[in-house]
Amino acid sequence: MDGLSTTTLLILFIGLSTAAAMLLRAGCERIGTPPLVGFLLLGIGISTLDASVGVINVETEVGIELLAQLGLVALLFRVGLGLDPRRLLAKLPSASVIWLGNIAIAGLTGYAVAQWVLGLELIASLVIAVALTATSIGVVIPVWEEAGDLNDDAGTLTVDVAELDDISGIVLMALLFAVLPVLQDGEGNFWLSMGAAAGELVLLFTVFVTFCWLFARYLTPRLYRLLHRWERTPEHLLTVIALGAVIAGIAEVLGFSLAVGALFAGIVFSAYPEQVRSNGAYGLLYDFFTPYFFIAIGLHLDPTLILPAAGVGLVLLIAAVAGKLIGTYLPARLMTDRASAGLIAVSMVPRAEIAMIIAHQAYQLGPWALDAELYGAMAVVTLGTCLLTPPLLGRLLARSA
Questions:
Q1: Which residues neighbour 178 within 8 Å (Cβ) at sequence distance 6 or greater?
Q2: Which of 13, 98, 137, 159 has the most neighbouring CB atoms within 10 Å?
Q3: pLDDT higher than threshold 70 for residue 276
Q4: DSSP letters of 107-170?
Q5: Beta-carbon neighbour count of residue 129 at 10 Å?
Q6: Which residues does 286 contact at the CB level (< 8 Å), separation at least 6?
Q7: What is the pLDDT, as a whole number, of residue 4?
Q8: What DSSP designation does 301 have?
Q9: Where does it primarily localize (predicted)?
Q10: pLDDT for 57 beyond 80
Q11: Distance CA 84, CA 95 (A)
Q12: 3: exposed, middle or buried (Cβ count in 10 Å: 0-12, 13-18, 19+)
């Protein structure tokens, strides 16, 4: 491999990994497993191969990281695109009780286990707590659809709560990473510094949300009329994605992450989701880029630490499952019957995109925020919850039919 240029290595990596990712996607869908499981395992496999023969150099890693960031933007842009702020506001009175209960108990359970069972430091415990508040409705939606229950009361309530989880997970992530530098320094008046950091975040977040609202309210309708007049249908998508990338970049400039910006960029265009997905073009871009985010996570996992991380991962997996089951079931019983509450609770168990985004962002800050073993442990949580939940939910839905 020493005789190959960086460009050649990167092209080979893109070609081989994309082909492998598409085959894994098809295989995972055939056996009812979320494709992200296959992508994570692919990344781990490449990392193991690289540790043996050194197929990836430093320059190639830069290109892979760019692909991973584009995958992150594509992933959260799609999440935001599927959110309807008006519908969420209408459902807020019923869904908010379950949402608040499940993120509070899931977060507190994660923090308690990390701090007092695993003996982790404050910062790592907070990262894990925030990551475990999230869920992944995309893992269980196919199961609900196959059972024909997605549009029932329990199915729609599940989607509403999960969408609120997505938003709160990103907002909590933004708040966490705003105060982490203060926690790391630990100098001066702690609470004064914490308040100043949180206050600055709230101010900048208000500015950013206001900008997104104005863009969606006044510019987006005019933009679509202009695009329909001047561009062909596939070209609309590229312009919208380009503007979404600009919004994500603005969030990064303001001190947030690309993840926050990409989510709100999707929300900006959520009034016209079908036009963005026209001709299936967006689906192709999404399918191309998003695997690289999970492949990059697998690449960052040290193969020698996977087994040592399994023990910690198992403890966190138990905390992740218990936190969501208890935190969702108890408040859901106030809103619906026992069977529906159980279905909603099980549907909140998977941790995938948002949880790994939070872990990945913390891991990139350095070992003081999240070390390699804990990063691997969070991958175990993702793999475990995504593999266990769909078959269990499928049996519960069949039993309740």
A1: 197, 198, 200, 201, 255
A2: 98
A3: no
A4: HHHHHHIIIIIS---HHHHHHHHHHTT---HHHHHHHHHHHT-TTSHHHHHHHHHHHHHHHHHH
A5: 25
A6: 74, 75, 78
A7: 66
A8: S
A9: membrane
A10: no
A11: 14
A12: exposed
Instruction: Tell me if 188 sits within 8 A of 207, measured CB to CB.
Output: no
- Token pair in block for residue 49: 């191969």
Quick one: 148 exposed, middle or buried, by C-beta within 10 A (0-12, 13-18, 19+)? exposed
Residue 187, helix vs strand vs coil:
coil
Q: What proportion of the chain, given as a percentage, has pLDDT over 70?
A: 93
Residue 163 class from Cβ within 10 Å (0-12 exposed, 13-18 middle, 19+ buried)? buried
Residue type, position 50, single letter: D
| Cα–Cα separations (whole angstroms), residue 146 to 32, 140, 364, 387 | 11, 10, 38, 17
The string of pLDDT tens digits covering residues 110-155 is 999 999 999 999 999 999 999 999 998 788 888 888 888 887 888 8
What value does the CA radius of gyration of the chain take, rounded to a whole number of Å?
21
- In tens, the pLDDT along 15-41 reads 999 999 999 999 988 888 888 889 989
Contacts of 55 (CB under 8 A, 6+ apart): 1, 9, 46, 49
Q: Phi first, then psi: what are they for 256, rounded to 5°? A: -90, -170
The answer to whether 259 and 361 have CB atoms below 8 angstroms apart is yes
Q: What are the residue boundaries of the structural domains of the chain, listed by start?
A: 80-286+302-400
Find the helix packing angle between 35-53 and 372-400, rounded to 10°: 150
Q: How far is CA 143 from the centre of its chain?
A: 19
For residue 7, how many C-alpha atoms fall within 13 Å in the half-sphere facing its CB? Answer: 0
For residue 205, give both structure tokens.
Answer: 């977040």
In CATH, which of 3.40.50.300, 3.30.870.10, 3.10.450.10, 1.20.1530.20 is domain 80-286+302-400? 1.20.1530.20
Checking 359-368 for CB contacts under 8 A at 24+ apart, the result is 359/127, 359/131, 360/293, 360/296, 360/297, 360/300, 361/173, 361/177, 361/257, 361/259, 362/127, 362/177, 362/180, 363/300, 365/177, 365/180, 368/123, 368/184
Residue with tokens 């001709």: 279
